[in-house]
Specification:
The protein contains 9 helices and 7 strands, in the order αββααββααβααββαα. The protein has about 450 residues and is α+β, with helices and mostly antiparallel strands. It has one domain: Outer membrane efflux proteins (OEP), CATH 1.20.1600. Strand 3 and strand 4 form a beta hairpin. Helix 2 crosses helix 4.
C-alpha cells in the first residue's frame, strides 16, 4: 500500500511538472511573438519582413532623418535667439571687499539690479523673427522631403529584392527543366533513338542554366544589402530574413494575369491628369523653397530698417555701504533713444546682399518647379509604358508556354530536335523574366510617380 501511494504521489507530481512546463513554454512563445514588435520570426528560422516594417525601421533608424531633425532643432534654437531681443533683460550684481592699513581695516558692500526692454525698433526685430520662423518651417519641410525620399528608396529596394527572388525562382525552374531534358536525352541515347550530340548539348544547356542560377543568387545577396542600406540600419545583424510572401507581386505565374491583386502600389485611384498640380501642392522641397524665399523677403525688410531709431526702457536699483545690513540704496528709470548716424555703408551693403539672395532664391524656386514638372511627366509616361509592357509580355509568355509544350511533345515522340526544345525553353525563360521585370518596372514607375508628386498611394503605416 505504501508503495502504491508513493507511486500515486510521483504520478501527480509528474503531471504537475509537465503542466507547469507546458504553461511556461506557452508563455515564452507568446512573449517571444511580441518582442521587437516589428519583425516576426519564421518557423524555418528566417525572419519575415513586410514593407510596412521596413518603412517603420527606416523612420526609426535612418541617419538622414536624424540629420534633418538636428537641422530643424538648430533653426528652432536660432528662432529662440532672435525673439530673445524683444524680451525683458535683467541682470544683477553683488560685490564685497575688505581692506586694511595701519589705522585699521574697513569693509564695503554693493548690490544692484538692472532691467531693460526694447519698446520700439521700427519692426526690425519683428521681421527678423518672421524670417527665422519661415526658415524653421523650411527646415521642417526639408525633413518631410528627406522622409519621402527614404520611403521611396525603401520601397524601390524592397521591390528589387522581390524581383531578384522571382528571377532566382525562374532560374531554378530552368535548371530543373534542363535537368529533365538531360535525363530524356540520355534515355533516348541509350535506347539508340538519339545521337550523342543531344546529350552533350543538354549537359551544356544545364551548365549554363546553373551558372545563371548562381548569378541570380548573387544578385539576391546584393539586393538584401541594398534593402538594409535603404532602411539605414542592419536590424538583424547576420540573421537571415525573408520578405512577406503575401506582398510578392511575382509569386504567381506571369501568364496568370491580375497584377493589381498582389501589387504593393496599385495607383488605380490616382488621378494622373492632376499629377502636376498635385506635385506643386504637395512636394515638400518645393514648399521649402517657397518658405526660404519668404524668409529672405522678411530678412530684407529687417535689413531695410537697420538705420531706423530704437527706443528702450531701462531701470535699475543699487545699494552700497560699509554695513551689509544698512546699505544706502538708489534707483533709476528712463528711456533711451538710439539713432544710427553713419556706419560706413555697412547697412546698404547688407541690404544689397539680401536683395541678391532673394533673386537667387526665386530663380532656384522656378528651376525646381520646372524640374518637378519634368519629373512628373517622365514618371507618368513611365507608368503608362510599364502598363503597356505588362500587357504585351503576358501575351508573349502565353505564346512561349505553348511553343515549349509543343517542342517538348515533339521531342518526346522523337520528331523534334534538341535544338528546338532548347530554344523553346530559353524563349520561355526570357518571356517570363521579361514579364517579371515589366511588373517590377510598373511598381518602380508608380513609386517614382509618388516621389515626383510628393504623395503616397498607400502609406503602409
Amino acid at each position: 500500500m505504501k508503495r502504491q501511494r508513493r507511486r500515486e504521489r510521483m504520478r501527480r507530481w509528474t503531471n504537475f511538472l509537465l503542466a507547469a512546463a507546458f504553461c511556461a513554454l506557452t508563455f515564452f512563445c507568446l512573449a517571444r511573438s511580441s518582442w521587437g514588435g516589428q519583425v516576426r520570426p519564421d518557423p524555418g528560422g528566417a525572419r519575415i519582413l513586410t514593407l510596412a516594417e521596413c518603412l517603420r525601421l527606416a523612420e526609426a533608424h535612418h541617419p538622414a532623418l536624424a540629420g534633418a531633425d538636428a537641422a530643424a532643432a538648430a533653426e528652432r534654437g536660432r528662432l529662440s535667439q532672435t525673439v530673445a531681443g524683444d524680451r525683458v533683460e535683467i541682470s544683477g550684481t553683488a560685490s564685497a571687499a575688505r581692506s586694511g592699513n595701519q589705522n585699521g581695516d574697513s569693509a564695503s558692500y554693493s548690490v544692484g539690479a538692472s532691467a531693460s526692454v526694447k519698446v520700439f525698433d521700427a519692426n526690425r526685430s519683428k521681421y527678423a523673427a518672421d524670417a527665422q520662423r519661415k526658415s524653421l518651417s523650411a527646415a521642417e519641410a526639408n525633413r518631410e522631403q528627406t522622409l519621402s525620399q527614404i520611403r521611396a528608396n525603401v520601397k524601390s529596394a524592397y521591390m528589387n529584392l522581390l524581383l531578384c527572388a522571382a528571377v532566382q525562382g525562374q532560374r531554378r525552374e530552368s535548371v530543373d527543366a534542363f535537368r529533365r531534358h538531360l535525363e530524356q536525352a540520355r534515355g533516348f541515347y541509350e535506347a539508340g533513338s538519339k545521337a550523342r550530340f543531344d546529350v552533350t548539348k543538354a549537359e551544356v544547356d544545364l551548365g549554363n542554366a546553373e551558372l545563371a542560377l548562381v548569378e541570380a543568387e548573387s544578385d539576391i545577396d546584393v539586393a538584401r544589402a541594398s534593402l538594409l542600406n535603404a532602411v539605414g540600419v542592419e536590424p538583424f545583424g547576420k540573421e537571415p530574413f525573408e520578405l512577406a510572401p503575401e506582398t510578392d507581386i511575382f509569386s504567381s505565374s506571369p501568364s496568370s494575369g491580375s497584377l493589381s491583386s498582389g501589387s504593393l502600389v496599385s495607383g488605380a485611384a490616382f488621378p494622373e491628369g492632376d499629377a502636376e498640380s498635385l506635385a506643386l501642392e504637395h512636394r515638400a522641397d518645393y514648399r521649402a523653397a517657397g518658405l526660404r524665399t519668404l524668409a529672405g523677403k522678411s530678412g530684407l525688410r529687417a535689413e531695410a530698417r537697420a538705420n531706423s531709431p530704437s527706443v528702450s526702457l531701462r531701470g535699475g536699483w543699487s545699494g552700497g555701504g560699509d554695513d551689509l545690513f544698512s546699505l544706502d540704496t538708489s534707483w533709476n528709470t528712463g528711456l533711451s533713444l538710439s539713432v544710427p548716424i553713419a556706419d560706413g555703408g555697412a547697412a546698404a551693403a547688407r541690404l544689397e546682399i539680401a536683395s541678391a539672395q532673394i533673386r537667387s532664391l526665386e530663380a532656384s524656386m522656378e528651376s525646381l518647379r520646372q524640374d518637378i514638372l519634368l519629373e512628373v511627366r517622365k514618371a507618368s509616361l513611365g507608368v503608362k509604358n510599364a502598363r503597356e509592357r505588362i500587357r504585351i509580355t503576358e501575351l508573349t509568355v502565353v505564346q512561349a508556354e505553348e511553343n515549349y509544350t509543343l517542342a517538348e511533345g515533339r521531342y518526346e515522340t522523337g520528331v523534334g530536335s534538341a535544338l528546338e526544345i532548347t530554344d523553346a525553353l530559353l524563349a520561355l525563360t526570357d518571356a517570363r523574366l521579361s514579364a517579371y521585370r515589366a511588373r517590377h518596372d510598373l511598381q518602380i514607375a508608380l513609386i517614382n510617380l509618388e516621389k515626383a508628386t510628393g504623395t503616397e498611394f498607400n502609406r503602409f503605416d
